[in-house]
Amino acid sequence: MTTEFVKITDPSVPEAKGILEKAADIVRSGGLVVFPTETVYGLGGCGTDESAAKKIYAAKGRPADNPLILHIAEPSEAEDYCYTSPLYYELAKAFMPGPLTVIMPKKDSVPSSVTAGLDTVALRCPEHPVANALIRAVGSPIAAPSANLSGKPSPTRADYVFEDMNGRVDMIIDGGESEIGLESTIVMIKGDKLILLRPGAITCDALSLVAKNIEIAPAVLEMLSEDEKPLSPGMKYKHYAPDSPLVLLDGEEKDVVNYLQSEIRLKKCAILCYDDEAGMLEGACLLPVGKKDDLTAQAHSLFTLLRDADKTGCDVIYAHLPPKTGLGLALYNRMIRAAAHTIKKV
Ligand code: AMP
Ligand code: MG
What we know:
5-stranded parallel sheet, 16 strands, binds adenosine monophosphate, binds magnesium ion, 29% helix, 11-stranded mixed sheet
């Protein structure tokens, strides 16, 4: 298949509107379009079309038991696809449009291939103007997982999408670098309780302003055993993985630096280091993540740096183990999975 590659900087100009109409036509007729969102790029198909969902799984090489997120233009559109509750509208008021996905019991209007046979559906209303304009142009929800090959880091730039998806989709819309850089926070509504299935830019602290009762699903922090079934099927897969092994270092900053200095003499190391450590780690391929306390910058650059680390041809990639607080929890969750839970105490 030939993939058309287009750029949109401002979705309101006439030229962009023409591109969005063309993209919407592709989606309505069962094709696939990659589009930018504020979290990461999405691989979109018609959310009410059984066969479009199947095409998405094939394009990503994604196991068909890992459901897709339905993207809507307005929070109230959820009524057509799931059984909402007052808590949903409280979350919508606080965080939508934005990087929050909410899981609720599905209605029959959602094909079972979208939800991988589950009786719940995941809904998100993205804030990115191109994503929002595309959903409006299609006139129905867009089913979209992240636009990477299954197991690879989610793409935060169109050139990464191109690496993974050229020849597999009808169109790629380049809308610049993703602002957040990590996928949406996912919560499941259970009565008046929220279960956090995937941490993201909407943190537990922020959610707790709306919901008193929040439970963190075990798969967010730990590796599940073979026979355990996660609430979110995606949590069981090794994910975001670079090709070289990633090792997370748990310890005081000075001990981490000492350990790295000795490793650099023995191996070809790529290191995701804090900006101010760069001068102490000569001889390694350095990928600065930002300042130690700037978790927003670290989230923004993580997937880019994991992809770049692979291109260095290193034997091993090292990074600091992130804290489990605030936005750190989202970084922690992505990095322990990218590292297949390889944590070294130093
Ligand atoms: P992605 O869009 O690639 O970040 O993947 C979507 C994530 O949402 C995956 O981890 C899925 O397992 C999760 N997901 C989607 N629908 C549901 C659902 N109904 N129940 C639980 N998790 C879901
Ligand atoms: Mg994904």
